[in-house]
Design a protein that fits this description.
This protein folds into 2 domains: 141 residues, 3-Layer(aba) Sandwich (Rossmann fold); 148 residues, Rossmann fold, CATH 3.40.50. It has a 7-stranded mixed β-sheet, sandwiched between helices. Strands 7-6-8-9 form a 4-stranded parallel β-sheet, with helices on both faces. With 333 residues, the chain is of the alpha/beta class. Helix 6 links the parallel strand 6 and strand 7. The structure holds beta-D-galactopyranose.
């Protein structure tokens, strides 16, 4: 059971006696800290979380206070934010870790105050999650994103082979834009997308790879350098997320290269801007990472934990992990 913040003036009532230990509160408070509020996928996930809160309030008739803080890339700042959330009487905290290898302080503080923690999107290692039974993780089925990206490229190659393989040598010359070093998604996507293309029987040749930290501007400048070095030898751009793929597209737009001469560019996330680029035909493919679904499941879990209900309601839950599936999205003529 959470330590309820009476000091912060939170009110709660017991509504009848359901199963043992089950009860409803009419007012709960959730603290959320994100690693970077300007990250496109995270910003969209937070919008969805706010919508999910409104829906849940309508459904339950209770009130949910959502307090959101931006850690702006600092783990120590995030630790302080979580400490403040706990002191101000949050029933549950949701943490998008800055450094996914460094959750110790947060776990220790939450455990000593008996406040459950839902980590999301930036996955802590299993040994850390095992450190207390009130630690959870909500995210995506990580392996799937890289595999699906590779599969879409292979499907596109089968459909439009000659257009992808511009020089007709039967090999796809590619560059790889990688997310943050050490991020579980960057590691997995980088490895699995290429391996899946190779396993589908398509030979590839890597021209370059660079870390662009999920960031559109950084990706644009990397892409500009590659374009200067390799010109139209680049046939495929594999990007660990949509924002970096959009950065690559920005580089082609800035160089005034016609759309028909772009390489095949593949992202991951299916953000609003990513899907618009698919419509436009500049982004060849993406893999939909269901941030809205993750937000919804996270809210359900947070609500149930705060209300001390059984967690049977939460979909996609295995142990203390909630992982949502991806979907392939491809531009088609
Ligand atoms: C990934 C997402 C990236 C970025 C990152 C932040 O799952 O694909 O675009 O948002 O999370 O941790």
């Amino acid at each position: 059971m959470a330590v309820f913040g009476l000091a912060a003036g939170l009110m709660f009532v017991l509504t009848g006696c359901g199963r043992t230990g089950e009860r409803e509160k009419n007012s709960i408070k959730i603290g959320v800290s994100v690693y970077d509020q300007y990250d496109t996928f995270i910003a969209q996930l937070m919008e969805s979380l706010e919508e999910a809160v409104k829906e849940k309030e309508m459904e339950t008739g209770g009130s949910i206070t959502l307090e959101v803080q931006n850690a702006a890339g600092s783990q120590s700042e995030q630790n302080n934010q979580i400490e403040d959330f706990i002191h101000s009487g949050c029933d549950v905290v949701c943490v998008n870790l800055v450094d996914r290898t460094d959750p110790t302080m947060i776990i220790d503080k939450a455990k000593s105050a008996d406040v459950p923690v839902i980590f999301f999107n930036r996955e802590l290692v299993e040994e850390d999650l095992e450190r207390w039974e009130k630690l959870y993780y909500v995210g995506a089925v990580t392996l799937e994103s890289g595999i699906m990206q590779g599969e879409i490229v292979a499907e596109a190659y089968k459909d439009y082979g000659k257009r992808l393989d511009k020089n007709g040598d039967g090999i796809l010359q590619y560059v790889m834009l990688e997310g943050e070093a050490g991020h579980q998604d960057a590691i997995i996507r980088t490895e699995y997308s290429v391996n899946t293309i190779i396993e589908a029987g398509i030979p590839v040749e890597k021209l370059g790879h660079a870390i662009a930290n999920w960031n559109r501007g950084q990706a644009q400048s990397k892409m500009q350098q590659w374009m200067e070095t390799f010109g139209d030898k680049i046939e495929l751009v594999l990007s660990n997320n949509d924002d970096m793929a959009l950065g690559a597209i920005d580089a082609y737009k800035a160089a005034e290269i016609p759309l028909s001469e772009y390489p095949f560019i593949a992202g991951i996330d299916g953000t609003k801007v990513g899907l618009e680029a698919i419509q436009e035909g500049s982004l060849g493919a993406t893999v939909f990472n269901d941030g809205a679904g993750q937000a919804k499941e996270m809210l359900k879990l947070a609500y149930d934990l705060a209300a001390d209900k059984s967690l049977a309601d939460v979909e996609y839950m295995e142990g203390r992990y909630v992982r949502l599936p991806h979907q392939k999205v491809r531009w088609k003529e």
